[in-house]
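Ticket #475: bound-state structure for pyridoxal-5'-phosphate.
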Amino acid sequence: MAALSPAQQDALRRLPSVDAVLADPRLMDIADRYDHAYVVSQAREAQNGARQRILDAPDDPACPAASVVADAVLCVLNGSRLRICCVINATGTVTHTNLGRALLAEPAVEAMNMAARHYVNLEYDVEAGARGHRDAVIEDVLRRLTGAEAATVVNNNAAAVLLTLRVLAEGREVVVSRGELVEIGGSFRLPDVMEAAGVRLREVGTTNRTHATDYEDAIGPETALLLKVHPSNYRVEGFTGEVALPELVAIGRAGGVPVVEDLGSGALLDLRRWGLPPEPQVSESVAAGADIVTFSGDKLLGGPQAGLIVGKSDAVERIRRHPMMRALRVDKYAYAALAATLDIFETDARPELRLPMLEMMTRDVAELERYADACVERWSVLLAPQVNVARAESTAQVGSGAQPATRLPSVAVTLDADGTGPAPLAAMLRRLDPPVIARVENDMVWLDTRTILVRDREALDAAMASLADELRDPR
Ligand SMILES: *Cc1c(COP(=O)(O)O)cnc(C)c1O
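RESOLUTION: The complex was predicted; output attached.
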């Protein structure tokens, strides 16, 4: 380490000790509301920060002695621990796994709040005055929405697949097409999930084509079930062929083995109603005769993180009774939010107005253009001359492996910083309060308006104003 300059040595000498900071009336004023060890650690952090600023500037050390106490007060008030904080999603990816996936409909939020504040009938049959089952609040509505005989719910769809395979095929063979041995988002790789479930993978067919005879030839005494997997975030095009579920069910019946389908997103309604491309519907898989169908609670459903398992009563009952269920089941919040979300699917005439994810996917482009124009008008004044603001056509996407081929027409506000380039500008946006998460493309920063919540628009304007301050007066 380089020797300290006399100015640095002087600045360091003048830094107050942690004890002096703790004894300052400004800190003592607030300290008794907080844990003592926490206050000491925050005072030390403020002092360390000041020391670092001195060390970072050998020629002209700042003289932060005076600000250490004020910094310590802020450190105590704001904390330094990482918390979940709200961010503005300007990426254009509606269901963004890194940003928490689905936003819940208001009734689902209220149901979660209620469950947090009150005792609830989670496992209690109020009418009978006796113990009930947690699935009671979701099973009937799922039966009506999907046509299935029975339903249960676990932590997520990965857990649904894992548990289903474990219960129905432990130690035996599961037949899957090579075209469906997919990886979804890094940590869900079907062959690995099968291994973790304790089942043996029997691959059939090829990557691009699998025929009925491939399945038929694979069925033997070791076969526990036939598994069909929605390839989700990837698509095979060109010379392709797969065995559709009704035919696979017929093959399973003939061979005396059950058929399970992992739908991934799984739609409860026909998305064509909103001009969106069709996504496999859970009810179609049930009608085709699948013994079990699994799908996600927080992809197209727009509910809490959950994995839904619907199908034949005896299979669902075996899954429900398995010891692993206890480890994979969900809490009262998930049941509360899920029941409220399913209720919207069943009863609401305009679910797209209630479910934020569907609302974002179906938002009118003309409305996005008006909003983008208003942003350009305000922000170009704010951010000039460093940043050039313009409107551009964009494409948003559904995200989370749902509908990979679907490009949602969208409108972006682009920020072009001549001086700094897009990456530093995007980093500045992420440091705003709330952090704004944008896309970098074509040497510019893109804010896609489709995923910017209407309720966040004011906060985004305020964040842009503080970006303007920072551009004028870099810290
Ligand atoms: C997304 C997906 C999963 C995993 O679902 P999670 O709810 O994220 O656990 C499993 N299978 C398929 C086909 C998927 O698309």
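RESOLUTION NOTES: Residues 156-158, 161, 184, 188, 229-230, 232, 262, 264, 296, 307, 401 surround pyridoxal-5'-phosphate (CB under 6 Å).
TICKET STATUS: resolved
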